[in-house]
């Protein structure tokens, strides 16, 4: 294979290293994109609350719940789903998120748990009402986070002989599928579909419709894209499907169930549990 035909990627993932190295910190572009996802999601959710005449003040507590749920869920997902053999021997490192290791499936579980708690104890609203709206913002954040993975040269694809293959020089000199970009674009398209469904098709009136489609599309796409990715941990090498795919399958079926059940479950204005 002729390397000149491919994209050479040697991006420094650090944020202005010459500026921050002098004060002993190393922020990354990934963190900027992660925070941008929360910021955009905050404003989008605030717009939806205003549109439905609910208190915009709810956003203060919702943001805290979602941020904590995302980080804890993503970290524990990585610990238990992907690297329990290591962390069971080094439990003191479980909370060291700065060393890397976050799992999107765990983030979803953490988010759902956090949104359930917020709905029950803060907003006093049906949890599906909350989920149908918050997952729109999560799809957008997912797109930005995968872009951050690309900037970090991580979660790389398998070797590929396609014109758009990328050589991540910080990893090796092998042309690979830019699966981070595939996922980023896919999640962005899913976000646009869910956003359109809420604002134009008024699907937010039906409990679980948007949430169900979120699960089906996000994890159906995730299942497919895993065929183009390198396995993230060694134990996956002997599996017919990797861990990400096995975790995605039940979520797709759960999503289908919620879409099916939503057909006759219209939410009345100001409905509370």
Description:
This is Phosphatidylglycerol--prolipoprotein diacylglyceryl transferase. The chain has 273 residues and is mainly alpha-helical. The protein has one domain. It is 58% helix and 3% strand. The chain has a 3-stranded mixed β-sheet, with no helix packed on it. Strand 2 (166-168) and strand 3 (175-176) form a beta hairpin. Helix 6 (127-151) packs antiparallel against helix 7 (179-199) and helix 6 packs parallel to helix 8. It is globular and about 55 Å long.
Number of helices: 9
**Distance separating the two termini:** 61 Å
- Characterize the biggest β-sheet: 3 strands, mixed
**What is the chain-wise order of helices and strands?**
EHHHHHHEEHHH
Could you give a quick summary of the protein structure above?
This protein has about 270 residues and is mainly α. Helices cover about 60% and strands about 5% of the residues. It has helices at about 15-20, 30-50, 60-80, 85, 105-125, 125-150, 180-200, 210-225, 245-260, and strands spanning about 5-10, 165-170, 175.
Features:
273 residues, globular, 9 helices, mainly alpha, 3-stranded mixed β-sheet
Per-chain topology:
Layout: E1 7-9, H1 17-20, H2 29-51, H3 58-82, H4 84-87, H5 104-123, H6 127-151, E2 166-168, E3 175-176, H7 179-199, H8 209-225, H9 243-262
Parallel strand pairs: 1-2
Antiparallel strand pairs: 2-3
